[in-house]
Design a protein that fits this description.
Blueprint lengths: L2 H20 L2 E4 L10 E4 L17 E2 L7 E2 L9 E4 L3 E2 L4 E8 L6 E7 L2 E7 L9 E2 L1 E6 L7 E8 L8 E9 L7 E9 L4 E6 L6 E7 L2 E8 L8 E6 L7 E9 L10 E3 L25 E11 L2 E9 L9 E7 L5 E8 L7 E8 L15 E7 L5 E7 L6 E2 L12 E10 L4 E9 L4 E9 L6 E10 L10 E6 L6 E6 L4 E7 L4 E9 L15
Parallel strand pairs: 3-10
Antiparallel strand pairs: 1-13, 2-5, 4-13, 5-12, 6-12, 7-11, 7-13, 8-9, 8-12, 14-19, 15-18, 15-20, 16-17, 16-19, 21-22, 22-23, 23-24, 25-26, 26-27, 27-28, 29-30, 30-31, 31-32, 33-34, 34-35, 35-36
Length: 528
């Protein structure tokens, strides 16, 4: 054979070698039933990859294929590590998808060389709310080429966002395309509504509506790149004719999501809206977005008011607002504007409403009794706050918020009633104790603004959900007698019956079941 043949063959082999070198090298895709040669410690990671969202978890998105590492197994109280077998660093970058908790050194993925952490990455979340979406990330490891390394995924955090999600770890000679950061768009509020295009399951961005330096609204949203699945309306009525700025923290490379936002004179096309195939016809449902717990059920100014946990910008839990609907007959409902928007104290979690007939709060004007909302601002820390209205439509948040400061990291869902014998307001507040003891804390106030702790009612310690979140507290007559008893219930419908002297609730019967099945949650009695 000629030297030319051998030369061509060598060149061909070199080309194949170069092509092989350019190709990404997979470290792990987590598509199997087990972790293979990876080793686990603790309970957080289980015996193999998760197939997406785990029980009790918000929807997980942004992972590749059908499996991922998800340490939410057993909830945010579980901990552990997941460690890869050794591999040789032979590309300039290690790329991955990561989400979940953002606690440095606690919910993280580390690159180990000689047992030492040389690179680390965390998820984006440390406060209530947020998203379970995985985002692209990468490390420049060019200085480590040729070294032996390991990947270690760590969950050493309990409580809020105490878990980590990871998928698709590969070596590559190029980092993933850089996302667009701090993207802005100027517009004029020339029409009542801002319509935001939503792609269910798409990449999620933090978006703000600003007027100058003031942040008017903020939320997480899956902005659609092309044709949206639906349009989320945002009310611009308060800023008609004003120049506004839209800001997004991060968008995929070459994204047109912000450019697709437009203004409209109509929030939602009413044609066929409540004739959709899967739209409930008896039970209330909002025009758009996610809803859950009923809040602040109250009769005021000749209307029944239904407030509810609402995400106007997505079909999954998040961005908690208080949605608002009214009815004359408890059957036919009209949705009105959002009552409460997230603010600097946090997203708007559940609560209750009262009519302050005696104007103990001082919020009333010109003889009009105020409608007062009592809600949890679920920031870090979570606190209890007030908002009030004189027309049942526009609500003003009390400038002295919060009125009840943080008791424990798990305190929420204030249910407030007027207790005539002691002439004061009583609040039943869920308080989760550090020892996993569910309690309902009773507090009292003469004016809704200043609260004093009275006593606590204990629920289950450890297992179960007895007296777990969204309490209700009310008095009923005992049929066929002149006696009355108090009822203390919680989110899953279990309740206790007993006596209340204005300070202490003494149960006489506990763990009674208010309903069968699991399709009812966080029921609440109407006030007034």
């Amino acid at each position: 054979m000629s030297k030319g043949f051998y030369g061509s063959m060598v060149m061909g082999l070199l080309a194949l070698a170069a092509a092989a070198q350019d190709k990404d090298r997979v470290i792990a895709q987590f598509e199997g039933e087990t972790y293979g040669e990876w080793t686990t410690e603790g309970t957080a990671f289980g015996n193999g990859p998760a197939k997406g969202t785990l029980p009790g978890q918000m929807k997980v998105s942004g992972f590749a294929g059908k499996g991922l590492v998800n340490s939410f197994l057993g909830g945010d109280g579980s901990t552990g590590t997941l460690t890869s077998p050794p591999f040789t660093v032979d590309r300039k970058h290690i790329c991955f998808l990561i989400g979940g908790g953002g606690w440095a050194g606690k919910t993280c993925m580390n690159l180990l060389v000689d047992g030492k952490v040389v690179r680390t990455a965390v998820g984006p979340n440390t406060v209530p709310g947020g998203s379970e979406e995985l985002d692209p990330g990468s490390w420049d490891v060019s200085e480590l080429l040729g070294k032996k390394a390991q990947i270690q995924i760590v969950d050493d955090q309990r409580g809020c966002w105490g878990h980590i999600n990871v998928d698709q770890i590969v070596q590559s000679d190029a980092p993933p395309p850089a996302p667009l950061l701090n993207v802005t768009r100027e517009l004029t509020a020339d029409k009542r509504w801002l319509l935001l295009p939503v792609k269910n399951g798409g990449p999620k961005s933090k978006v703000e509506v600003r007027r100058g330096e003031e942040v008017l609204r903020f939320f997480d949203i899956e902005l659609a790149e092309g044709e949206p699945d639906w349009w989320a309306p945002l009310d611009l009525g308060a800023w008609h004719g004003k120049a506004l700025t839209l800001w997004a923290d991060k968008l995929p490379a070459a994204s047109k999501g912000l450019a697709n936002v437009r203004t409209s004179g109509e929030a939602v096309s009413k044609e066929g809206l409540y004739q959709e195939a899967l739209r409930p016809q008896l039970h209330f449902s909002p025009r758009r977005g996610w809803n859950n717990d009923p809040n602040g059920l109250v009769y005021y100014n000749g209307e029944y008011h239904l407030f509810f946990q609402h995400n106007p910008y997505g079909v999954n839990w998040g961005n908690m607002h208080w949605g608002h609907a009214v009815s004359q007959d408890l059957v036919h409902w009209t949705e009105v504007d959002e009552a409460l928007y997230p603010d600097a104290l946090g997203p708007m979690f559940s609560g209750s409403a009262v009519v302050d007939h005696a104007n103990t709060s001082g919020f009333g004007r010109d003889g009009k009794a105020p409608l007062v909302l009592i809600y949890t601002a679920a920031g870090n820390p979570a606190t209890q706050c007030l908002a009030y209205s004189l027309d049942g439509r526009a609500f003003t948040k009390y400038d002295g918020n919060p009125v009840v400061k943080n008791i424990t990291p798990g305190n929420r869902d204030p249910k407030v009633i007027w207790h005539a014998p002691t002439k004061r307001w009583i609040m039943a507040l869920y308080v989760g104790r550090p020892d996993k003891l569910h309690t309902v804390q009773l507090l009292a106030s003469p004016n809704l603004r200043e609260w004093t702790e009275l006593s606590a009612v204990k629920g289950d310690q450890g297992g179960g959900h007895y007296l777990y979140e969204c309490p209700d507290f009310f008095e009923l007559p005992v049929a066929g007698t002149s006696e009355r008893r108090w009822v203390l219930s919680a989110a899953d419908g279990q309740y206790a019956v007993g006596t209340f002297d204005g300070t202490v609730f003494r149960p006489e019967a506990e763990r009674l079941s208010g309903h069968c099945g699991n399709a009812t949650y966080a029921a609440q009695t109407f006030s007034d």
